[in-house]
Amino acid sequence: MSTVEIHPATSWDDVVQVFGPNGAQGGCWCMWFRATNNEFRSWPKEERRDRLRDLIESGDPAPGLVGYLDDTPAGWVAVAPREDYPRLARSAVTKPLDLSEPGVWSVTCFYVTRAGRGHGLPAALLAAAVDYARTAGARALEGYPADAARKLQAGELYHGWPSLFTGAGFTEVARPSPARPVMRRTL
């Protein structure tokens, strides 16, 4: 039986081990939600990588959590205050229900290595994200999972899926798009 542990992302080497040399999905380096469209497009992959490294090395709060499978980095979840993600406010799908509402954090991205799949890492990462946000003073945590009528490919699951969130105590609070609910858990 494998052991799973989740810790704040404080080791750049561990994050690189999860994302690989190309920065996970399409060289994003988990910067998609932290930038506007124009910013993201203007940043080459190396700049995205460097920006994430700067966030990790700057300390508190960590920009995400790393999941370890038998002490090997194998998963990632991005979790931070909602205002750290400018793309959320600009999207019709993820636009905040109330912009003036303080203390809301967001889970924007999951990534699990091929070797890490099938061991429950997404659920463990989300449970740890709830605890991490609560400890940091968040009063609510939101997620924006994909809810498609068809089976999604692994690369399409970075938002998570509804049953992952409901299993962690989240409820649907809005559905701005048929395939994208807004899930929230009060902390």
Describe this structure in words.
With 187 residues, the protein is of the alpha+beta class. Helices cover 29% and strands 26% of the residues. It is built from six helices and seven strands, in the order βαααββαβαβαββ. Strands 1-2-3-4-5-7-6 form a seven-stranded mixed beta sheet, with helices on both faces. The longest helix has 15 residues, at 121-135. The chain is globular. The protein starts with a strand and ends with a strand.
Give a quick precis of the structure.
By secondary structure, the protein is α+β, with helices and mostly antiparallel strands.
Gross morphology: globular
Number of strands: 7
Q: Give the SSE string.
A: EHHHEEHEHEHEE
Uncertain runs are none
Q: N-to-C terminal Cα separation, in Å? A: 31 Å
Number of helical runs?
Answer: 6
How are the secondary structure elements laid out?
Layout: E1 4-8, H1 12-19, H2 37-42, H3 45-58, E2 64-69, E3 72-81, H4 86-90, E4 104-112, H5 121-135, E5 140-143, H6 162-167, E6 171-177, E7 180-186
Parallel strand pairs: 4-5
Antiparallel strand pairs: 1-2, 2-3, 3-4, 5-7, 6-7
